Q: What sequence folds into this?
């Protein structure tokens, strides 16, 4: 039996409903992930450009755009168990360039910036409260890395009550295999994995806020 058939028979892979109040979440397109002078980063220019097409339109239509960054104080860097496993993340220090959103994203003053300390954009942050307060019913998740913070944020988005969409060409990772495996897994269990062209066409069909 094929892999696709196994998932289909198990009841996975159904389509996600698309609501009328979307928001765009851009996960960790900060210099620590996007500027290859840093060992924690990878080349993500194409994914940033694809994401910006979505955020520029969403912003013009009055749809919320939110960015996340990971930033640690020295105490957090010394204490948090994740950083004992992923030691490179300790370089993401509060106040450093590594935690600034890459200027190619075009983030605006009206956009939300959520500072997180773990993989998920929801864990230990006020992201769910912001989205709920804004009346968001469908969350488009983009950013880095696909197999890490994007996937964790997608799982928590669904668990927080948001229909979730993932444009694959807006997600970047350090290696292709975990990128592809994570997209497949998210599409089967948590989100509709699509592309930026499809998402932009849908956003244009949604009445401006």
A:
């Amino acid at each position: 039996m094929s892999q696709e058939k196994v998932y289909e028979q198990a009841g996975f892979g159904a389509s996600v409903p698309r609501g009328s109040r979307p928001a765009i979440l851009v996960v960790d397109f900060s210099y620590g992930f996007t500027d290859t002078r840093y060992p924690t980063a990878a080349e993500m220019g194409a994914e940033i450009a694809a994401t910006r097409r979505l955020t520029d339109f969403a912003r013009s239509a009055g749809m919320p755009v939110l960015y996340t960054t990971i930033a640690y104080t020295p105490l957090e860097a010394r204490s948090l168990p994740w950083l004992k496993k992923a030691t490179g993340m300790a370089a993401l220090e509060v106040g450093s360039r590594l935690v600034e959103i890459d200027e190619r994203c075009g983030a605006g003053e009206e956009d939300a910036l959520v500072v997180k300390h773990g993989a998920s954009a929801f864990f230990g942050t006020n992201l769910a409260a912001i989205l709920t307060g804004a009346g968001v019913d469908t969350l488009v998740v983009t950013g880095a890395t696909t197999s890490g913070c994007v996937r964790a944020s997608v799982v928590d988005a669904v668990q927080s009550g948001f229909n979730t969409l993932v444009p694959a060409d807006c997600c970047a990772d350090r290696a292709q295999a975990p990128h592809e495996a994570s997209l497949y897994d998210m599409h089967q269990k948590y989100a509709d994995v699509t592309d930026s062209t499809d998402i932009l066409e849908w956003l244009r069909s949604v009445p401006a806020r």
About this structure: Strands lie at 22-27, 65-70, 112-116, 138-144, 163-167, 171-172, 192-194. The longest helix spans residues 45-60. The chain has one domain: 21-205.
